[in-house]
Amino acid sequence: VVPFVMPELSTLTMAAIRSLSQDPDGFFLMVEGASVDSAAHANNLPQLVEEMLAFNRAVEAVIGWVEAESSWDETLLIVTTDHGNGLFLGPDSDTIAFQDPVAG
């Protein structure tokens, strides 16, 4: 049995763009780096950084597509967060303020 490996977010993003861009009326696509939230809540700095880098690569892929296949005159790209988790808090942050984070 081959274990399932999630494709890179940038790969999934480009697959969606290639499919949706076939519509002559244009398209809307929302891409979410969902695991960044669970990593932040868990104070898992390595996973958080990995998730942020993966999201950055997805944004870079979109920019590359716009510049090669579309134009900025007909494209709107919005990059935002649903909410921020603030600064990292350590495992005992409920009793020790500003404790150093611990890699998960």
Describe the 3D structure.
- With 104 residues, the chain is mostly helical.
- It has helices spanning 9-20, 35-41, 45-69.
- Helix 2 (35-41) packs antiparallel against helix 3 (45-69).
- It is elongated, with a radius of gyration of 18 Å.
- The two termini are 28 Å apart.
- The mean pLDDT is 85.
Q: What attributes does this structure have?
A:
104 residues; mainly alpha
Concise overview:
The protein is mainly α. The protein contains three helices and no strands.
Layout of secondary structure:
Layout: H1 9-20, H2 35-41, H3 45-69
Helix pairs in contact: 1-3, 2-3
- Intertermini distance: 28 Å
Number of E strands: 0
Strand content: under 5%
How would you sum up the global shape?
Answer: elongated
Order of helices and strands: HHH
Structural class: mainly alpha
Mean pLDDT figure: 85
| Helix coverage percent | 40-55%
Poorly predicted parts: none
Tally of contiguous helical segments: 3
Biggest sheet architecture: none
The whole-angstrom Rg is: 18 Å
